Amino acid sequence: MWDYSEKVMDHYRNPRNVGKIDNADAIGEAGSLACGDSLKIYLKIENGIVTDAKFQTFGCGSAVASSSILTEMIIGKTVEEVKKITNKDIADQLGGLPPEKMHCSVMGYEALEDALGNYDNLTDLDELRNEKTAEKIVCTCFNVTENMIWDAIKQNGLRTVEDITNYTKAGGACGKCKGLIQDIIDTYYKKEESEAQKSTLSPAQKILKINNIIETQISPELRKDGGDITLVDIDGNKVLVKLRGKCSGCKNSHLTLKAFVESTLRETVDKNIDVIEVA
Amino acid sequence: MSLIYLDNNATTKVAPEVLEAMMPYFKEEYANPSSIYEFAKNSNHAVRDARGVIKDFINAGNEKEIIFTSCGSESANTAIQGVLNMNKNKRHIITTKVEHPCVLNLYQTLEKQGYKVDYIGVNSNGELDLAQLEEAINYDTALVSVMYANNETGVIFPIEKISEIIKSKNKETKFFVDAVQVAGKIPIDVQAAGIDLLGISGHKFHAPKGVGALYVNSKTLITPLIIGGHQERGKRAGTENVPYIVGMAKAAELASDSLKYELSEVKRLRDKLESGILKKVFNARVNTAISNRVPNTTNIGFEYIEGELILLHLSDLGICASSGSACTSGSLEPSHVLRAMNVPFTAIHGSIRWSLSRYTTEKEIDYVLDVLPGIINKITALSPYQDELENLKKLRS
Fold first, then answer.
1. What is the pTM of this model?
2. pLDDT of residue B65
3. How many domains does chain B divide into?
């Protein structure tokens, strides 16, 4: 027994905009018969505005409701506006979906994304499809890619493997990919955390951090090759350093500075850092 | 809107006679059957009599072979773990791919504890591969565990034949039968069928939820699952649930009396529903049409549409059935039973199980046959697989 909202019930009982559009300007698909739900969406686009949208869905009540409301949400909007729609917007418009059914709203988002991708690259459809299939598949049971999981985390703030399964189906069958999904979640939040840290550093904290990284990560590496580095000064994002030992006067010192020192500091402290060598 | 309940394999309504039989044991006769005073006599005798009724219901040899439990899952857990604990030197179990989850999940847990479990497959009609079963039994096999009939398809397994195979290969191997889906639908004779342990659940035959029974024949030793007092001869501790035990016994009596009706009238209505749907809906297929099924069950797949949506539309008209689709359970994967049968994926997600009872009327079946084609048409019109549907229509017309 699902606790469907009144709106969900209204839309699966009386789905809007059912069918096909002949000569559609964009067609998007998501899901598959084997997986238990699939959606095809047809768009008519004139002067950058979606003038008509229709859908065909094989799926449960919430899948039909998600498709139906999506067509209502996009008709009359510009392509640019439509591109900003996320699965969360679809679920919100429906007055929410049960957690286990969030993947239905994701399917709507994916079909829309597919349609607009096709629309933008109308001349190069094959290439686009190749690109899509070349994406790394995480869940082989439901053909869920790493990018789809990443998007779902980003759009909905998901935190657990169970959340990912509810939103994307990944991990919902054999469960073999659950470890991989956990890794993706960990990577996402580690990245987010480090980005958050970077942006909130005070000038003094920044100086300390740069100094610390030079001492613990950069200098030991250079010393292995008989060289070394000292921090001379920090001015905003400009980091002034002095190369010593074998490094000083080395033909490749510029490469060392940019490819190693600068990139390490950009990765760990701030992506706008410039490393400058002083004599 | 009246209710049309065609989900009797999920649970059944409590028969009015059952409720009536239970009432005194809530109101006046509340004594603990173990107590010594005269006041406890009626409740004590009620449990004793109920044990006799259940003994007759499955034709056990002795009342002592009946243990009252709280549900089918408890019966199965007690039987399986009880036998394994008594045979610690044996580490092999055989079961089927289509068992109820309450049993399957237990076996998966036992595998993690080091048991080797063989899962016997079925053919596309849902019938067990007996050759595979025979081959799997060896000196180390502690237990063979087979359901009497499948809850989703209604297919009855050849229990007597399986028992013969087991005994011919290894006389020490015990045979547990999960009979939850047949009790009250077909006659059970544990002695003739050569069953060592058998579990039933009251709420599948018009007793309330919360009571079941386990038959353990006198030659089979088990350890209790629930340890405590001396109740059920030390095989299941806990004060007897007197009103529910009385209710299940009453339900067993009523079911015994109506077995003939099940096998003739309920079966006739089931067949009418089945053939009616096939005639009226071009994208319908019976997932298994063999005659050896419990008389109340049919499982029908609607191709290129999804089951939950069918159920939601039926529900709007007061009709209750259930689905093997992934979406209804939230499990994401469709029924393990239909997958084991290799039901094509075009139909597996749109499979609906209809299960009747002796309370189902002809009028109700007629009503379903009346409204179902409209619902299916409405949902079929949403499907992205219109070309495939068109081909199917040509093929079947």
1. 0.81
2. 98
3. 2
